[in-house]
Amino acid sequence: MSRKVREFGRTGALALVISSLSGVAAAQPAAEPPGGDVAAPPGEPAGAAPPAAESPAAMPASAVAAGGDALAARFDEILGRPGGLTADQAGERAAATSPDAGACAKDVEIARYDVDRAVSGFLPEVTLLARYTRQSPVDNGSIGPGSGALVGTAPAADADGDGIIDTDADGTIQAPLFTVPMDSFSFPVLLNQYLLQASLNVPISDYVFRTRFGVAAARGNERAARLSEQAARLQAAANARLLYFDWVRAKLQLVVTEQSLLQSREQRRLAQKSLEGGRISRVDVLRAEAQVASAELMVSQAQHLVTLSEDRLRTAMHEPNEGPLSVGDRLSEGPSPDARRGFEQLYAEATSKRLELRAIDASASALRDAGRSLRADELPRLSAFANGYYTNPNQRVFPQEDKFTPSWDAGVELSWTPTRIGGARAEARKYAAQAAQRETDIQSTRDALRTEVMAAHQGIKEAALNIETAQRGLTSAEEGYRVRQLLLQHGRATSVEVTDAETVLLRARLALVNARVDLVAAQLRLDHAVGRDVK
After folding, report:
1. Buried b (16+ CB within 10 A) or exposed e, 131-151
2. Exposure string (b/e) for 466-505, b if CB count within 10 Å is 16 or more?
3. 18 pLDDT exceeds 60?
4. In this structure, which long-range contacts are made by residues 107-113, counting pairs with CB atoms below 8 Å and at least 24 apart in sequence?
5. Cβ within 8 Å of residue 21, ≥6 positions away
6. Choice between 87 and 323, residue whose per-residue pLDDT is larger
7. For residues 481 and 516, is the Cβ–Cβ distance under 8 A?
8. What is the CATH number of domain 2-27+54-126+202-529?
9. Residue 509 and residue 25: Cα distance in Å, rounded?
10. In this structure, what DSSP letter does residue 190 have?
11. How far is CA 438 from CA 150, 331, 366, in A?
12. Which among 219, 251, 203 has a CA at the least distance from the CA of 76?
């Protein structure tokens, strides 16, 4: 929340520059300037003679009305241009290119990898092994003593093939004897051994006590990262929209100051004519010259403010400074229904929609699931296994033969490592403490959110009142300036009075521009504070 407050606070720098415009308008000369030649108007050589006299009756009866109409026409030209940049477009571009949101997107990617790794825990463990072993030579083993022999008989003979065993004359079966040395009963020693093995292990107990909680924790972290990314993009979009309307404010203020400069030059022209007619003194002309110089300064400041605000907007959108920007939005003037809504209603809307709260809650839930997954280390581990072998020689074949022979085995295994219990419980307590910390962060975020909603709610109510006040002030200032102009034309007012009226009119116009933009900005702040920009 503090980061968001700081980002929203950056727009306050523009307000300082904006306030300087009104300050310059108020800082008109109060004392008479020293005598001397009248300063030449811009574009005229110094010491040039004033233009030819012109009857005051040739001027319109209400210069202010014409000026107000011209100002409104110029506002219409600036606002709502077809194909111009809108606040929503600025917010979308800023959200798409925000570095903070980009960093959060990488967090989402990392969390997605953790999910994939956790889900893979549901797969049985398959191991493939190929091994070659060269053994050291040993003496052959044998049966019986190393000397002596065994005596045996060969199978009975059937030489003539009639199926009758041949016998001697006395009837003895013909079966010759033979001897076998005792050392012939030895077993070969195969020094080269080859093993091809495939193993399958199914962690049955882990599926119940570890894997499912690990997957839930990983998915919770991914959800928290995704919500944080969305919140960062919404914050960037909200900041860009505020910068957009600061830029609109600067452009409208430039129009107001340019209109004020035109009126100041007209006032100087009338003062010079009145001086020629003997109706005012030279001091009044000098005051008119000072007013023109002050108006030119304000125009220059307003131009710099437009450049600054446009650059800040382009920076937020991360777009190059190529081609001018035009305003595609108009300023709403109608009252906001949120000004009449209760604060608690708005705060309840914010707590149900703001992504920051949901992200913290998802992170706390993930930590609790991670702690549950550690229960598997406290309990016996049950697993099923199966192995397939293709070996040369096969150890199960007796005696050993120099050839590949397949075999297999399968079974169930129950194992328990009590020494892991202490570490698992300590790790589980750590996750529980971190989850409790997240819950504390939720309360802190709620408190900061309450302050943000309260400030936005008060801001929109003040902006709604300020619109009405500024409109009344402008009506009064226009009428006061019109009356002073008429009185000056008939010699019943001084240029000091007209200058003061013109200053009041300028400040009233700037106040109305600021009030209209402040109303839109306050609505944007409130919409973001209560989470209405969440899609």
Report:
1. eeeeeeeeeeeeeeeeeeeee
2. bbeebbebbeebbebbbbbbbebbeeebbbbbbbbbbbbb
3. no
4. 107/225, 107/228, 107/229, 108/222, 108/225, 108/226, 108/229, 110/225, 111/218, 111/221, 111/222, 111/224, 111/225, 111/226, 112/222
5. 253, 257, 298, 301, 302, 305, 510
6. 87
7. no
8. 1.20.1600.10
9. 11
10. -
11. 86, 41, 11
12. 251
Q: Enter the tokens of residue 310.
A: 């446009």
317: left (phi over 0), alpha (psi -120 to 50) or beta: alpha
Which has the closest alpha carbon to 254: 218, 332, 308, 195?
308
Supply φ then ψ for residue 428, to 5 degrees.
Answer: -65, -40
Q: And the tokens for 343?
A: 């604060």
Peptide bond into 29 cis (omega under 30): no
Distance set, CA 129 to CA 192, 199, 421 (Å)? 17, 8, 32
Distance CA 215, CA 202 (A): 17
**Residues near 173 by beta carbon (within 8 Å), at least 6 away in sequence:** 156, 165, 166, 167
Q: How far apart are CA 368 and CA 434, in angstroms?
A: 9
Q: Residue 394: what residue type?
A: N
* DSSP designation for 385: E
Q: Which residues contact 344 (CB under 8 A, 6 or more apart)?
A: none
Most confident of 103-107, 281-285, 480-484: 103-107
Give the lowest-confidence range in 117-131, 138-152, 203-217, 494-508: 138-152
Q: Judge whether residue 88 has pLDDT over 60.
A: yes
- The H or E element spanning position 411 is strand 405-415
When pLDDT is cut at 50, 70 and 90, the band that residue 489 belongs to is confident
- pLDDT confidence of residue 28: 41
Smallest CA-to-CA distance from 297 within 31, 505, 42 is with 42
Q: Is residue 180 predicted with pLDDT exceeding 80?
A: no
Instruction: Report the DSSP beta bridge partners of residue 152.
Output: 178
DSSP 374: G
User: What is the rounded distance in angstroms from the CA atom of residue 520 to the CA atom of residue 238?
Assistant: 12
Threshold 0.85, pTM exceeds = no
One DSSP character per residue, 240-309 reads HHHHHHHHHHHHHHHHHHHHHHHHHHHHHHHHHHHHHTTSS-HHHHHHHHHHHHHHHHHHHHHHHHHHHH
Domain ranges of the chain: 2-27+54-126+202-529
Residue holding tokens 């399958």?
Answer: 200
The residue whose two tokens read 């050839």 is 403
Alpha helices in 334-491 (DSSP H): 343-353, 355-373, 421-489
What pLDDT digit, counting tens, does each position of 220-274 carry?
A: 999 999 999 999 999 999 999 999 999 999 999 999 999 889 988 988 888 888 7
Q: Cα–Cα distance between 535 and 531 in angstroms, integer?
A: 9
With the C-alpha atoms ordered 495, 501, 505, 511, is the resulting torsion angle positive or negative?
positive
